[in-house]
Amino acid sequence: MGWVMMSERELNRVEVLAQVDDGRLSVDNAANMLDLTRRQIFRLLKRYRQDGAAPLAPGCCGHIQHGD
């Protein structure tokens, strides 16, 4: 597994999603903090729970290249 570069904004997004996943933050509060809709938060949470933080980085879009 290689390194994934993330901006401060992306790291903040991961931290907020982790707080929602842990039950420390509501979906509504996360949506307000990240300026996203509830639906977007649920989509990001699904990807976060399945694949961790890496797919949330731009350019990744959940596509994993194998064989490199």
Structural overview:
The chain has 68 residues and is mainly α. The chain has one domain. Helices cover 53% and strands 0% of the residues. It is globular, with a radius of gyration of 12 Å. The protein starts with 7 loop residues before the first helix and ends in a 17-residue tail after the last helix. The C terminus is likely disordered.
Features:
globular, 3 helices, 53% helix, mainly alpha
SSE pattern, N- to C-terminal: HHH
Describe the main β-sheet briefly: none
From the spread of the alpha carbons, the general shape counts as globular
Rg, alpha carbons = 12 Å
- Put simply, the count of helices is 3
Structural class: mainly alpha
β-sheet strand percentage? under 5%
In the predicted model, the low-confidence regions spanning at least 5 consecutive residues are 62-68
Number of strands: 0
In percent, how helical is the residue content?
A: 40-55%
- Roughly what is the average pLDDT, rounded to an integer? 82
Number of domains: 1
| Amino- and carboxy-terminal Cα gap | 10 Å
Pfam families: HTH_29
InterPro entries: Homeodomain-like_sf
Protein name: Winged helix-turn helix
Organism: Roseovarius lutimaris
